[in-house]
Amino acid sequence: MKCLKINGGKKLSGNISVHGAKNGVLPILSACVLINGVSVIHNCPKLSDVDVTVDILRYLGAKVERENDALIVDTSQIGRCDVLESYMKELRSSIIFLGALASRSGRACLYLPGGCEIGLRPIDLHLKGLKALGYNVYTDGHNVCAEKKNVKGTEIVLPFPSVGATENIILASVLAPGRTTIVNAAREPEIADLVKFLNKAGAKITGTSAPTIVIDGVKTLHGVEHTVIPDRILAATLMSACAITGGEIELENLCPEHIMPTLPAFEEMGCRIDISKNSLRIKSPERLKRVKKIETMAYPGFPTDCQAPVMAALSVAKGTSIIKETIFENRFKHIEQLNMFGTDISINDRIAVVNGVKNIHSADVKCTDLRGGAAVIIAALKANGISTVKDIHHIDRGYECIENQLASLGADIKRMYDEKK
Ligand code: UD1
Question: Which end of the chain is more exposed for a tag (fewer CB within 10 A), N or C?
Answer without folding.
Answer: C
